[in-house]
Specification:
about 280 residues, alpha/beta, Rossmann fold, Adenine-specific Methyltransferase, domain 2, 10 helices, 7 strands
């Protein structure tokens, strides 16, 4: 009999392209190692659903990393303070835009972390979007009951004890890897079509040049004996970018497009650049 799959751990954040639903499928292709490095950690579904001794978790979104550090450093205090924002009186457009303005006008990392969690749950569709000036501009979501993710926050806080959180260019995160490490990448996906590109989860975006740079860095890193696993859309472009890697076509179909009347399915792949020993 095979080993029983452990229950999936749900991230406490809503996040575009999150890997919660397919975390167990991805985990099967991640080799053992002393540290799992994620240059694009996002909501942390792979981090939460694997069991490496240590983690290095990066994201270009400074607010996301500040949130994770606040939970790591403050634990129960953060959860207690965040719970106060999840009230009926704050589930109105007036309260939402007041708190969004407060978020955009404070440099206090702890306050920004608390409100960032609130905005993620009370904002529209769990989006994380900024304007050209760096201001968070997601509209009010009009949810009946967003719900406070206390259990998920407690689990994240406990798991964060094994993690180092950084906010930097993904190329620098790759440079942190050593032979005993494994790298898993969940970058903003390459377009499944010319109109399906969404990369505004952080100011600066992630364009086709970045997709190519990621593929080239992954290939070079594998040459140093470090296995790199990448998730992306399964398209002619990505298969060309990941030439030389082992390609796994995932048995999963993801709805894409923010417009519910224009949603369609897109296949995904996993590219495995095996570390050359």
């Amino acid at each position: 009999m095979g080993e029983e799959e452990p229950p999936k751990v749900r991230p406490f954040l809503k996040w575009a392209g999150g890997k919660y639903e397919i975390a167990q499928k991805i985990r099967k292709y991640l080799p053992e190692g002393k540290t799992l490095i994620e240059p694009f950690v996002g909501a942390g579904a792979i981090f939460l659903n694997t069991d490496y001794p240590k983690y290095t978790l990066n994201d270009v979104n400074q607010d996301l990393i500040n949130l994770y550090k606040s939970i790591q450093e403050n634990g129960d205090t953060f959860i207690k303070d965040a719970r106060k924002l999840f009230s009926e009186k704050n589930n109105t457009a007036t309260a939402y835009y007041r708190l969004r303005d407060k978020f955009n006008n404070t440099d206090d990392h702890y306050q920004r972390s608390l409100i960032f969690l609130y905005l993620n749950k009370f904002g529209y569709n769990g989006l994380c979007r900024y304007n050209k000036s760096g201001g968070f501009n997601v509209p009010f979501g009009r949810h009946k009951n967003p719900g406070f993710p206390e259990k998920q926050l407690i689990v994240f806080s406990e798991n964060s004890k094994k993690a180092k959180f950084v906010c930097e260019d993904f190329g620098k995160t790759f440079n942190r890897a050593r032979k005993s490490h494994v790298i898993y990448c969940d970058p903003p996906y390459a377009p499944a079509s010319e109109t399906a590109y969404f990369s505004d989860y952080a100011t600066g975006g992630f364009d086709l040049d970045d997709q190519e740079r990621l593929a080239n860095i992954a290939r070079k890193t594998a040459g140093k004996g470090i296995t790199v696993v990448i998730s992306n859309h399964d398209t002619k472009l990505t298969r060309k970018l990941y030439k030389g890697a082992k390609i796994i076509k995932l048995d999963v179909r993801r709805n894409i497009s923010c417009n519910s009347t224009n949603r369609r399915n897109a296949n995904e792949l996993i590219a495995i650049f095996r570390g050359e020993q």
